[in-house]
């Protein structure tokens, strides 16, 4: 089972690259300039799917190599700085690339899609490194804070989806009639609702369940804090000598 999970994890990074290439290159990239729904698919791949796959698929050996040693309890100021630097750039990039004037510019100039790709994926990776710290080799932020960060990111895209569905006009140039303009906007809004839910909602649920279970067992958190303080230069507490159980009778 562990080998299967390791192989599955190793496939996530290449899968992210394939998905990004599929939506960033023709014919999908060409259709995204004309259809709001295709444009929404391209956006959620850049902003949500690809960053999550890249972080979750990061090789475990590299994550361990980047671990700074013993796990240390973060100070409140460090928690706030990391949360802000992880979340705010992602929110700024997501909002910027869904502004109607920017969407219109994307439809006119295909070269802007490359900038959209780089900024959204980079900001998304920074966020997901905080949401999935086991892949990043860093001391994790508090679980309730990571759950809140994931929820804010998800709700930001949901608000954008609401605005997209309720807007009076399309953000892309006129295209060959396939569906009505209103139906296309609703389809784009559905994509912007569904994909973030699939990416972020499980993170919120798992982190909150683990946080609540830790609250039911406060001794676990106390042991972690004491161990980190007592052994600041070791990855784990010293192990008992081999065979101590047999010698102790």
Portion in strands: under 5%
Q: Which value, in Å, is the CA radius of gyration?
A: 22 Å
Q: Summarize the amount of helix as a percent range.
A: over 70%
List unreliable stretches of 5+ residues. 64-71, 227-237
* Secondary-structure content class: mainly alpha
Span between termini:
36 Å
- What value does the average pLDDT take? 80
Shape: globular
Q: How many DSSP H or I helices?
A: 11
Order of helices and strands: HHHHHHHHHHH
Sheet with most strands? none
**Tally of separate domains:** 1
Task: Give a description of the structure.
This protein has 249 residues and is an all-alpha fold. The chain has one domain (2-63, 74-237). 73% of the residues lie in helices and 0% in strands. The protein contains 11 helices and no strands. It has helices spanning 2-24, 28-32, 36-56, 60-65, 76-96, 100-108, 112-131, 143-166, 181-216, 218-230, 244-247. Helix 1 (2-24) packs antiparallel against helix 3 (36-56) and helix 3 (36-56) packs across helix 7. It is globular. The two termini are 36 Å apart. The model is unreliable at 64-71 and 227-237 (pLDDT under 50).
Name its key features.
249 residues; mainly alpha; globular
């Amino acid at each position: 089972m562990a080998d299967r999970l390791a192989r599955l994890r190793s496939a996530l990074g290449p899968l992210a690259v394939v998905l990004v290439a599929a939506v960033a290159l023709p014919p999908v990239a060409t259709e995204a300039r004309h259809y709001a729904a295709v444009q929404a698919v391209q956006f959620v791949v850049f902003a949500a799917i690809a960053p999550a796959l890249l972080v979750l698929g990061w090789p475990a050996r590299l994550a361990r190599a980047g671990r700074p040693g013993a796990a240390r309890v973060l100070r409140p100021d460090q928690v706030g700085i990391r949360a802000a630097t992880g979340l705010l750039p992602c929110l700024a990039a997501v909002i910027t690339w869904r502004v109607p004037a920017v969407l219109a510019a994307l439809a006119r100039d295909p070269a802007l899609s490359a900038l959209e790709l780089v900024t959204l994926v980079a900001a998304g990776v920074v966020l997901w490194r905080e949401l999935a710290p086991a892949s990043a080799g860093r001391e994790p932020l508090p679980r309730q804070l990571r759950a809140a960060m994931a929820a804010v990111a998800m709700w930001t895209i949901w608000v954008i989806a609401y605005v997209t569905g309720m807007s009076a006009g399309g953000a892309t140039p006129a295209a060959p009639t396939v569906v009505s303009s209103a139906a296309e906007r609703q389809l784009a809004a559905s994509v912007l609702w569904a994909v973030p839910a699939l990416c972020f909602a499980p993170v919120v649920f798992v982190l909150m369940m683990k946080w609540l279970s830790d609250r039911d067992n406060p001794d676990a958190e106390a042991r972690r804090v004491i161990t980190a303080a007592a052994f600041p230069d070791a990855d784990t507490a010293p192990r008992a000598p081999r065979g101590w159980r047999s010698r102790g009778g």
